[in-house]
Design brief:
- The chain contains 9 helices and 2 strands; from the N terminus they run H-H-H-H-H-H-H-H-E-E-H.
- It has one domain.
- The longest helix is centred in the last third of the chain and has 26 residues.
- The relative contact order is 0.15.
- Helix 3 packs antiparallel against helix 7, helix 4 packs antiparallel against helix 5 and helix 7 runs antiparallel to helix 8.
C-alpha cells in the first residue's frame, strides 16, 4: 500500500493508517482517543446539525473543552501514518500538518461567534475554512525552508 493510501485511510478514521502500517498499539490508542474525544465532544451530533444548517444548535451541542483536542490528534494521526508508510521524506514535510492543526484549532476557538460575510459557520464549517490558509502557510513554510 502506498503512503498516500494510508494517509487517506487515516483521514477517514484516525488510527486506521497506523493499523495498516502494522503499528497496532499506536493505531488502537489513536482510534480509542478519537472515539473518546468524539463522544465526549458530541461531535457526531454537531456534524449532523451542521450539515442540516442548524448552526446555532450545533454550537449549543458542542463540548468545546473536549473538541479542542480533536484537531491535533487528527492531524498528528494523518501525518504519522503518512510518515510511517514512507511518505514525507523531505525536510519540513510536517509543516502543512502542523499549521493545518493550528489553524483548525483557531477556527474552532472562534466558531461560536465569528461571522464571515455575515454568516455564522459554527464548529464544523469554520474550522474547515481555516484549514485552507493553514495548509497553505505550511506549504509556503516548507518551500521557504527548502530554499535556505
Amino acid at each position: 500500500m502506498e503512503a498516500k493510501e494510508k494517509l487517506l485511510w487515516s483521514i477517514a478514521l484516525p488510527g486506521f493508517g497506523q493499523i495498516l502500517n502494522g503499528k497496532l498499539i499506536k493505531g488502537i490508542l489513536i482510534l480509542f482517543l478519537e472515539i473518546l474525544i468524539n463522544v465526549q465532544a458530541n461531535f457526531n451530533e454537531v456534524i449532523i446539525l451542521s450539515f442540516h444548517g442548524d448552526i446555532v444548535s450545533a454550537i449549543e451541542q458542542t463540548n468545546y473543552q473536549w473538541l479542542m483536542f480533536y484537531p491535533c490528534l487528527y492531524f498528528f494521526a494523518i501525518w504519522d501514518a503518512f510518515k510511517d508508510a514512507g511518505g514525507g521524506k523531505e525536510r519540513y514535510s510536517f509543516l502543512p500538518f502542523v499549521f493545518g492543526a493550528y489553524f483548525v484549532t483557531i477556527g474552532l476557538i472562534y466558531s461560536s461567534n465569528l461571522k464571515l460575510f455575515g454568516v455564522l459557520f459554527g464548529p464544523v464549517w469554520l474550522p474547515m475554512i481555516f484549514l485552507i490558509p493553514g495548509v497553505g502557510i505550511g506549504l509556503l513554510g516548507k518551500l521557504i525552508a527548502r530554499l535556505r
